[in-house]
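Structure ticket #2291
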Amino acid sequence: LGGFFFGYHLGFLFNMTLSFLGEFKMQYQTTIAAIATPLGRGGVGVIRLSGPKAYEIAEQLTQKSLPAARMAGFRQFCDADGSVMDEGIVLCFPNPHSFTGEDVLEIQGHGSPVVLNMLLKRCLELGCRMAEAGEFTKRAYLNGKLDLVQAESIADLIHAESEASAKGALKSLKGEFSGQIQQINHQLIHLRMFVEATLDFPEEDIEFIANAKIKSKLELLQQEIHQLLGSTKQGVILNNGANIVIVGRPNVGKSSLLNALANEDIAIV
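Resolution: structure written out below.
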């Protein structure tokens, strides 16, 4: 009876897993599209596509073959009746060497909201669906192109309000912070190996922990973790800003210091 219930639950979990994987696969077999440039008018507006049908949709939109990978090609963008809606540049980024790990295509037209919406509407008619907020980055994470720290650093870089915060976010995006975390993780696994060896083989007259100087290595590792936490606190201050009070006697230069830090005359005396 126990074996029956075990087999039943195992089969149920297996079917649930297949169902989840099926839904996940169906969702990410779709091709998504979105306007990649901010709202407003400008000289250039970009629409980004990602997914298996990106190139097929672009060929129908331009009614021409696409340029070679990472080579800009001038194209006209046509409506369903063949009339030209806009003209500009097309760029192809084949999988897996793209931001999302999928076939990615960028359409660079004129930065009119009306024109961009017309182009996006046509892409949706040809088989795309509208991308959810942050879905391009989400696909890059799910396809192993970014880890979670790098994904968060993209938002930090976009919203950076100072050169220091932008440089810090770029370092995280390049994987510097993730590399430090991985290094600490490898050291912890190494220390755990000696501890588990001592627990698994207590009859052996070998002092694994003492001989490997585990205590001193653990203390060094703690220092590294504290330093890393300190750097993250500094990064939070760079991103969110800090409330600072300048205190001093009258006429010692508080207002001048404030103006110098702000790089403009903002002090009211």
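Closing remark: The longest strand covers residues 84-93.
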